[in-house]
Amino acid sequence: MSEENVRSDADLIELSKKDPEMFGLLMERYQGPLFHYIRRLTQLGSDDIQDLLQEVFIKIYQKLNEYDEELKFSSWAYRIAHNHIIDHFRKVGARPQTNSLEDYEWEKIISASVHIEKEIINKDCVEKVKGCIEQLPLKYREVLILRFVQELEYEEIMDILKKPKGTVATLINRGKDLLVRNMKEQKINCF
């Protein structure tokens, strides 16, 4: 393992403030997770996601001096990505979609929502439930993705969304309830 891989985020942040070349190490560390987060929220093609990701990294670099060391760097970076995605879609007048999730990622949300074993889910059911998830308002889709696909802890989701724990828990529960209600309304019962 190289020396750069064992350095903490805090170390890399301090080094990046003095030497911009060191920021590349932070970018390498977070490029994959942030790329997948943006992909899951936006349904854009790879080139557009790469463009958004580069814009996010520029914002992260520009705001390094504002970083609050009380927060996990990953939560802070996700928050910047979250805000940038929302701003991007406000500018283009569109809403982000989530149907670019992989089937196994959809299954995580479905399993969390209806408490079933993954083995029971079949492809046809996943396709039907995708439609139900896509109908959820963005605030519910996003929190379900952060919790069950990104597998973030409540505290990290709180930092990203800038909402208290009770609100995050409520959004997750309402999102799951709404998903189950949508499935019942559309008579999707493949479990």
Characterise this structure.
The chain has 191 residues and is mainly alpha-helical. It has 2 domains: 8-92, Rna Polymerase Sigma Factor, Chain: A (Orthogonal Bundle), CATH 1.10.1740.10; 103-185, Up-down Bundle (Butyryl-CoA Dehydrogenase, subunit A, domain 3). 71% of the residues lie in helices and 0% in strands. The chain has helices spanning 3-6, 9-18, 23-42, 46-62, 73-92, 103-114, 123-134, 138-149, 154-161, 165-185. Helix 3 packs across helix 4 and helix 6 crosses helix 8 (138-149). The termini are far apart.
**Kindly state the mean pLDDT as a whole number?**
80
H/E element string?
HHHHHHHHHH
Q: Supply the number of structural domains.
A: 2
- Low-pLDDT segments: 115-120
Taken from the alpha-carbon principal axes, the silhouette is elongated
What is the count of β-strands?
Answer: 0
Euclidean distance between termini CA atoms = 45 Å
Q: Which CATH architecture of the largest domain is right?
A: Orthogonal Bundle
Biggest β-sheet strands, sense, barrel: none
Query: Number of DSSP helices?
Result: 10
- The secondary-structure class comes to mainly alpha
CATH topology of the largest domain: Rna Polymerase Sigma Factor, Chain: A
Top-tier CATH class of the largest domain: Mainly Alpha
By CATH's scheme, which homologous superfamily of the largest domain applies?
A: RNA polymerase sigma factor, region 2, helix turn helix motif
Query: How helical, in percent, are the residues?
Result: over 70%
Strand content: under 5%
Question: What's the alpha carbon Rg, rounded to whole Å?
Answer: 18 Å
